[in-house]
Specification:
homodimer; Rossmann fold; 3 domains; 6-stranded mixed beta sheet; DNA-binding
DNA sequence: TTGTAAGCGTTATCAT
DNA sequence: ATGATAACGCTTACAA
């Protein structure tokens, strides 16, 4: 990889590197002619400043790190698109990393981002993460961090989340209002903030309509088909099986529907299903899946804006961190 | 962002930075005690080498650039997962960029990757790209490039692709064998390699079964619902409308099904649909969508391996570039 | 075995 | 207005 440097320009033009540097960035007053010559020559030989050298010098990279559990998940890939729009417009780059829902990978990613001198980190926690020392440490070093979607209470910073409580409430209420009497909930990892909030919403809806809360109907579950299949087996084996299931994520909804179909359960007659998903294809399902959608793109954008503001802020005044809760949308696709 | 450097270790231990450096990487023979002391102290104060300094010094970054049209697309996000497995295991990092199907964004991404000193580039071309000077230039500078999925003939390098011809052939053949007589094809951007190959496969199947080829049944089309909706309107308005559609991508299939449903077309009775998609949820559709799946993960892995081999190769012997064609799998989900 | 110094590309400080 | 120099963190000849 041969490269054009400031030195090459200086040599060719019989100038010092500092003059060239100044001409290039027009910072110091420099003779207009010199400036012109330099700029033209730079253009001609297609000079590009080396961001690595800059990073080393300035100890920052004009890029932010983004850690998501998984890219192959519509919610997160849409959130990333939101993030990229913002950071791109503000002259930054986004480095995307996946934790694959693994705590260990998350820690490694965090460390790597730190050593890469990203200017800030956007993160949505892995399902396995309970200990957040790696993030606290990072924050203590002065790295701005913003959570989106999945956060930890133990870190004081901006958080951008969906109104999971309300979303779960609406989903459950919808099922109640459609006449369902025994509504199960398949939830994700118990440690996640979203899981707790959604369970609370589910409970609140049952309470409001004075339905009994049966904790055996709440199943924490991994994403895989086998796990969900097991859980559904348990639910169906119950002497008083549910007539509806509220599933807490894209993956869970898909696995749930698959398992139910495999077991030849009539959806929605025997069991109605509502999801908390960002599946843009749910309307094509048989039957179409009602679902609570999160504003993924907007969540990414909001989080990115908050992070960049943190990064670029001048004032030394103490920061008041915000938790921004974005509304979810209940999309009813099947009168079940 | 306060940071621990080699200098800090040297100072604390009354050594020179070079000694510390050597101890840390165990390269030169160094007294075992010194080594031990250094390693322990480094561990203690949690020293992490600065990859930026290393990049600057070695003019390489131990990272590769990945440019895909869009992350919010199961095929590409799965391919990225394949890529990451490989590069991670071989001590590299993947920087992921999206062209959003835009030629301009692709050029910018390529330039940015170059200035970032990535060690190589994996790319799947944008739908808009016809001119590939930006890549040729990059290759001329010595940057290893490997194409996956969408390539250009004008660049001589490794290419890892799906057997698009065969996939399209199988899809079309399936429709013919199920008794369809007039099969339309909704294709993506005309400039893409995958588009041409799939059209060829489609044609070959029609030829084999001595069906007439009617070019008005081949529609190049953008991904959006409106565009596909228009195209379907045209097809249906035909005096002799098709009784089957072979769609060339995830997005096209989804838009196509949506449009058909909006128009109350009976699928598959009136029109059967087969896709070329990596949708893991197609079996939940009404009716379940038959589809040709590409080995996304494997494609990513293979491409990444080839790229890393190029990056790490010692020999100066001329390289023989390969084009690796991976088999697709026809998944029949509805007897239409 | 260890230290000194130069260099990777750039900018900021201090001379001139 | 321009040039010389040091510095960012690290590695590696070359010296000792």
């Amino acid at each position: 990889m041969e490269t054009v440097t400031i030195k090459d320009i200086a040599k060719a033009l019989n100038l010092s590197t500092s003059t060239v540097s100044r001409a290039l960035r027009g910072s110091y007053e420099i003779s207009p002619e010199t400036k012109k010559v330099v700029l033209e020559y730079a253009e001609k030989i297609n000079y590009r400043p080396n961001p690595i050298a800059l990073s080393l010098k300035e100890n920052r990279s004009r890029s932010i790190g983004v850690i998501v559990p998984e890219i192959d998940n519509p919610f997160f890939s849409q959130a990333i698109n939101g993030i990229e729009t913002i950071v791109y417009n503000r002259g930054y780059h986004a480095l995307i990393f996946q934790s694959y829902e693994s705590y260990q990978r998350e820690v490694i990613n965090v460390q790597h981002l730190a050593s890469r001198r990203v200017d800030g980190v956007l993160i949505s926690l892995s399902g396995q993460t309970t200990d957040i020392d790696h993030l606290r440490e990072l924050q203590d070093k002065g790295m701005p961090i913003v959570f989106f979607d999945r956060f930890s209470d133990e870190i004081n910073t901006h958080k951008v989340i969906a109104d999971n409580f309300d979303g779960a409430f609406k989903a459950t209420e919808h099922l109640i209002k459609s006449g369902r009497r025994r509504i199960a909930h398949i939830a994700a990892s118990a440690s996640l903030s979203i899981t707790k909030e959604r369970i609370n919403g589910y409970r609140a809806a049952l309470n409001k309509y004075q339905r009994p809360i049966d904790d055996t109907l709440i199943k924490y579950c991994g994403y895989s088909l086998v796990e969900v299949d097991n859980v559904i087996g348990e639910l169906l084996a119950d002497s008083n099986p549910p007539d509806a299931i509220f599933t807490a994520s894209d993956r869970l909804a898909v696995s749930c529907l698959t398992a139910l179909k495999n077991k030849h359960v009539d959806i929605p007659k025997q069991i109605a299903v509502v999801g908390f998903t960002n599946l843009k294809v749910a309307h094509l399902f048989d039957p179409p899946l009602s679902t609570v959608m999160q504003p993924a793109m907007e969540m990414g954008q909001t989080a990115a804006e908050l992070l960049l503001d943190l990064i670029e802020r001048k004032s030394k005044a103490p920061i008041t961190y915000q938790t921004i809760k974005l509304p979810t949308e209940m999309i009813i696709r099947e009168s079940c």
